């Protein structure tokens, strides 16, 4: 039995985590959940954004499935997501985007995996505002060590999964130092895996190429902010935020979560698509080497996605979150 910390989160978080735990129970997955919340919900209840009990649970289990957490815009509330990623050095944010039969999009044959550096860059939290001068400085700290780690992780993943190409997205023509560090880090990793093609593209062109001919990409590696933007873009190519999974991975801990946020516009209405979190949970099962049950759940999900009428509204269907969940359970 694997002990896993479960963080339901805010907004649609509790609805989609319930969908996943129901499906796991029906499939008799050998996972025992240890529920510990964080975010707006715990703050309203106890005044704590990240309760100590949650940190203790994470440090013990070293593995979590996490719902989205609301981060208000502006000063005074540091993102819990960013905090956890930095505190536990979860330096890889791995986000696969794949065309799925049954999900109608403008594209075919997309199968790419984005590796986003998850602890540095413009999300380092190094921001100062001089009120007198009216100047804000936001420092995008990129380190040689951090760049080596994420670039090596992307190539090693490509190697393990029989993928053929790694594309680095950067802006080294303008952001020269940080961009060059990433290019050099990729060149080093590339020398270790010479059978994998390495190419680099400037981020603006990368965006154009992604919407124009996304099927040309395989593994993509990039810095934190670019990766955040590109992963929502890639979600849009394959059916939207409701279907794209993610994982925050470090050398000692992993937290699996969807790419999307807490979706306050649809929270509590039974409209949320749990596919993204379920796919994150399936990634978690592969991480635990529970491949058989992971594939079984994946198959039931893929079969359900073939029936648009059994899907949630974001995919053109009419099912509620719990009806969609039941359709998956019926196919297990
Ligand atoms: P969002 O990703 O929550 O929502 C964007 C749009 O996608 C909304 O129209 C929403 O209804 C839709 N959507 C998202 N997930 C969906 C799902 N599973 N099924 C159906 N539709 C879905 O982004 P937004 O609105 O910009 O952010 C809301 C909050 O979430 C913010 O406080 C933000 O900071 C937080 N956030 C948290 C993340 C995390 O915990 N990892 C990641 C991204 C945002
Ligand atoms: Mg994002």
TrEMBL record:
InterPro entries: IsoCit/isopropylmalate_DH_CS (IPR019818), IsoPropMal-DH-like_dom (IPR024084). Gene3D superfamilies: Isopropylmalate Dehydrogenase. The keyword Oxidoreductase applies. One of its GO terms (molecular function) is isocitrate dehydrogenase (NAD+) activity. SUPFAM superfamilies: Isocitrate/Isopropylmalate dehydrogenase-like (SSF53659). Keywords: Oxidoreductase. One of its GO terms (biological process) is tricarboxylic acid cycle. Residues 3-328 form the Isopropylmalate dehydrogenase-like domain. Pfam families: Iso_dh. It comes from the Bacteria. Belongs to the isocitrate and isopropylmalate dehydrogenases family. This is Isocitrate dehydrogenase. It comes from Hymenobacter coccineus.
């Amino acid at each position: 039995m694997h002990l896993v910390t479960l963080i339901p989160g805010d907004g649609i978080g509790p609805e989609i985590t319930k969908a996943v735990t129901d499906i796991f129970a029906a499939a008799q997955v050998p996972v025992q959940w240890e529920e510990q919340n964080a975010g707006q919900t715990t703050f309203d209840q106890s005044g704590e954004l990240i309760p100590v009990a949650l940190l203790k649970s994470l440090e013990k289990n070293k593995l979590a499935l996490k719902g989205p957490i609301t981060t208000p815009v502006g000063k005074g509330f540091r993102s819990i997501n960013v905090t956890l990623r930095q505190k536990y050095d979860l330096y890889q944010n791995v986000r696969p985007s794949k065309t799925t039969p049954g999900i109608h999009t403008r594209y075919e044959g997309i199968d790419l995996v984005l590796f986003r550096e998850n602890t540095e860059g413009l999300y380092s939290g190094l921001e100062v505002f001089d009120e007198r001068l009216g100047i804000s400085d936001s420092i995008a700290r990129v380190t040689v060590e951090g760049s080596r780690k994420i670039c090596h992780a992307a190539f090693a993943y490509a190697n393990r999964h029989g993928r053929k190409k790694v594309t680095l997205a950067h802006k080294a023509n303008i952001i020269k130092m940080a961009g060059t560090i990433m290019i050099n880090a990729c060149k080093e990793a590339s020398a270790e895996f010479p059978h994998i093609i390495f190419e680099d593209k400037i981020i603006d062109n990368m965006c154009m190429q992604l919407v124009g001919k996304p099927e040309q990409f395989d593994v993509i590696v990039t810095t934190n902010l670019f990766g955040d933007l590109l992963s929502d873009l890639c979600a849009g190519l394959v059916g939207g935020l409701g279907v794209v999974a993610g994982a925050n991975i470090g050398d000692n801990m992993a937290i699996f979560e969807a790419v999307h946020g807490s979706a306050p516009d649809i929270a509590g209405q039974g409209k949320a698509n749990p596919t993204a979190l379920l796919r994150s949970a399936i990634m978690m099962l592969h991480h635990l080497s529970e491949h058989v049950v992971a594939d079984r759940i994946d198959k039931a999900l893929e079969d359900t996605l073939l029936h648009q009428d059994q899907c949630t509204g974001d995919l053109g269907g009419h099912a509620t979150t719990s009806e969609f969940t039941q359709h998956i359970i019926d196919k297990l």
